């Protein structure tokens, strides 16, 4: 029975590590996405940092990516940038790849 318990604990530990890594990748992706949008809006470096943090915070409003997409589309449109949801989703996908790459390099 001990080996079964050990396996169960190992699977639980792996699941916890995987979940933590997924959370970190998404947070990094959102920060990169905030930087992408800030560059399009012509924000200063200080404003870019604050905006990227705001995008990360926006992801905690609801499950999924819709809250982040809504924020970016709304902010870009309010800044007079011609954009649509499809462009933001493409940027989201591109930044996800970059975030994963960065996290793997950091290991």
TrEMBL record:
Protein's UniProt name: Aldolase
Alphabetized Pfam families for the sequence: ATPaseInh_sub_z (PF07345)
Record-linked InterPro entries: ATPase_inh_sub_z (IPR009945), ATPase_inh_sub_z_sf (IPR038293)
């Amino acid at each position: 029975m001990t080996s079964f318990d050990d396996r169960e604990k190992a699977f639980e530990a792996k699941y916890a590590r995987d979940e933590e890594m997924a959370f970190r990748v998404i947070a990094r992706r959102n920060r990169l996405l905030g930087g992408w949008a800030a560059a399009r809006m012509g924000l200063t470096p200080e404003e870019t940092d604050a905006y990227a943090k705001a995008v990360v915070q926006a992801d905690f409003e609801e499950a999924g990516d819709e809250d982040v997409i809504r924020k970016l589309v709304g902010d870009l449109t309010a800044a007079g940038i011609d954009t649509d949801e499809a462009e933001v989703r493409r940027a989201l996908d591109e930044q996800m790849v970059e975030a994963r790459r960065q996290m793997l390099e950091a290991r």
